[in-house]
Automatic annotation (TrEMBL):
Keywords: Metal-binding, Repeat, Zinc. It comes from Mikania micrantha. Residues 23-46 are annotated as: Disordered. InterPro entries: C1-like_sf, DC1, PKC_DAG/PE, Vacuole_Formation_Reg. The keyword Zinc applies. This is Phorbol-ester/DAG-type domain-containing protein. SMART domains: C1. Residues 31-46 have a biased composition (Acidic residues). The lineage of its organism: Eukaryota, Viridiplantae, Streptophyta, Embryophyta, Tracheophyta. PROSITE patterns: ZF_DAG_PE_2 (PS50081). It comes from the Eukaryota.
Length: 522
């Protein structure tokens, strides 16, 4: 509690009354004040060329331009006037409604432990790093905040992308293509499409059409139904979309989002490779099973790409149309601009996954030291559904209110850091790693401890398809390695959380993707 009695203050941070000391002469104060009734008052005075020491709350110096400060002479304890008059409690702060924030000098051990930053930690609003200074803290959530204000005007940024996307059925490509007038005018311009990516005609599926008199099931994690686009490798959760004409007789099951079927054929002056034009490539030439590493997010992908075959520079289509600016719910009041962290003078860390930005492109808040990987900003939807919970799960950027215990993932059952973004059900109070959330059929038992990031490593890989190798009698299916799998039959090392080829008939024969590619002719 803060109580001011004349020029004395009773402050909750100190056991003695604090006296108000002036750092300007009475004459200077008279010139600044309209009311000179107190000219005869005797004030403690400090000469102008001196300062009042250091504030015990913010640890900053007290200078003459601060005009005055509070001081306990017996303890040599000082406070800036503005620091001393901050309220001890903040009720229903707009950034943390429902709980009381308390002005505190303490740091919860859990926060320091989770962040692993030698006792330094960051404000959850401005993201600035601080140590040995006061903060507003919610004891129920292990959360601390500073002050923030909006740094942009909505009307000056009419096309600003607001993240995260609402659900798994919405992604950057849909946002980009629906902003293009040509795409809007060409929608539903025919139910049959010949696309360069596929040898068979594609037909448009909408609410009134079917394939072979049987409706095609949309992607539904709750029912363990998987339908991934062959272009962007993202779920197809709405109609219309395109599917191979021969899907009815099981000869082929090739599907594309409507917007992925109408992507531009080339990109001029792409930021990451401005010297050459990038062309749309349904499959990277010479790459085994079409798998390549994206030059932006560095994730493996076997979907469509934009590429320069001369320089062997390839970008997954999900990273091809990254906007220059976004906002994000995790930092809603500030614009984030696209940056290349490799040009930064010192190492930066992602707010979402807590890992170094390194060479990866990201978004940066110029008002705060706030960085986030492109994939963490764009690839994690706001709401997901999962078979582990009958309710939708929301993306969380901080610990859950009133939950002070340890956090465990419902999918892999491993403990996790609640300061790393995760998904949470407020009804069932269940949580899961963001990387454990995607539905990957036959791979639900993949353990998170092999890859402790926010993004599922194979988010851009569409597993499935098969091949035949010479030293095995059955066809091998392209799949993710699991903890339960035996070691690779070629190199004898672990298959866990690696791309692999498995025999689904023998159940005891599996090999790494790299090992198979070395024995199969391209």
């Amino acid at each position: 509690m803060v109580v001011v009695v004349k020029d004395q203050l009773l402050h909750f941070s100190h056991h003695h009354p604090l006296n108000l000391l002036h750092l300007q002469s009475p004459k200077q104060r008279e010139e600044e004040e309209d009311d000179d009734d107190n000219d005869n008052d005797e004030d403690d005075f400090v000469e102008e060329d001196h300062h009042g020491g250091q504030c015990n709350l913010c640890n900053e110096q007290i200078w003459s331009f601060h005009s005055c400060y509070y001081h306990c002479k017996s303890c040599d304890y000082s406070l800036h006037k503005f620091c001393a008059e901050l309220p001890e409690f903040m009720q229903d702060h707009p950034l943390h409604v429902g709980h009381t924030l308390t002005l505190s000098m303490s740091y919860p051990y859990q926060m320091i432990h989770y962040r692993n930053t030698d006792s330094k930690w960051k404000c959850y609003v401005c993201n600035l790093e601080w140590k040995d200074t006061y903060n507003y803290h919610c004891s129920l959530c292990n959360l601390s905040r500073g002050k923030t204000s909006k740094n942009f005007k909505e009307d000056e940024h009419p096309n600003l992308l607001h993240c995260p996307f609402q659900n798994e059925g919405v992604n950057l490509l849909k946002h980009y293509m629906f902003d293009q007038k040509k795409f809007i005018s060409s929608q539903h311009d025919g139910e049959m499409l010949n696309h360069l990516s596929h040898q068979h005609p594609l037909i448009l599926i909408d609410k009134k059409t079917s394939v072979g008199e049987k409706l095609v099931s949309l992607h539904d994690p709750m029912k363990r139904v998987q339908l991934l686009c062959d272009g962007c490798v993202r779920p197809i959760m709405t109609v219309p979309f395109y599917i191979c004409f021969h899907c009815a007789d099981k000869q082929c099951c090739f599907v594309l989002h409507e917007w992925c079927a109408k992507l531009p054929m080339k990109i001029e002056e792409y930021d990451g490779h401005p010297q050459h034009t990038l062309f749309l490539l349904p499959e990277i030439p010479g790459e085994f099973f079409g798998v390549f590493d994206c030059a932006i997010c560095f994730f493996p992908s076997n979907g469509f790409a934009y590429g320069c075959t001369t320089c062997k520079y390839y970008v997954d289509i999900n990273c091809a149309f990254i906007p220059k600016e976004i906002t994000h719910d995790s930092h809603i009041d500030h614009i984030r601009s696209k940056v290349n962290p490799s040009a930064e003078p010192r190492r930066r860390y992602c707010k979402a996954c807590k890992y170094s930005m390194k060479r990866k492109f990201g978004f940066h808040c110029r008002s705060c030291d706030f960085y986030i990987h492109v994939q963490c900003a764009l690839f994690l939807p706001k709401i997901i559904t999962h078979k582990c919970d009958k309710h939708p799960l929301s993306l969380r950027y901080e610990p859950v209110e009133n939950q002070l215990g340890e956090y465990f993932c419902e999918v892999c059952e491993n403990k996790f850091d609640p300061f790393q973004w995760f998904y949470h059900c407020t009804t069932c109070l269940q949580s899961m790693h963001a990387a454990c959330a995607p539905l990957i059929l036959q791979n639900e038992l993949a353990t998170y401890d092999s890859y402790d990031r926010c993004i599922y490593k194979f988010l851009n890989i569409k597993f499935g398809g098969s091949l035949k190798i010479n030293n095995h009698s059955h066809r091998l299916v392209f799949a993710q390695g699991l903890q339960s799998d035996d070691d690779c039959n070629i190199c004898l090392s672990s298959l866990q959380y690696k791309m692999a080829f498995k025999c689904l008939e023998c159940h005891d024969f599996a090999c790494h993707y790299e090992c198979v590619s070395s024995v199969v002719d391209l």
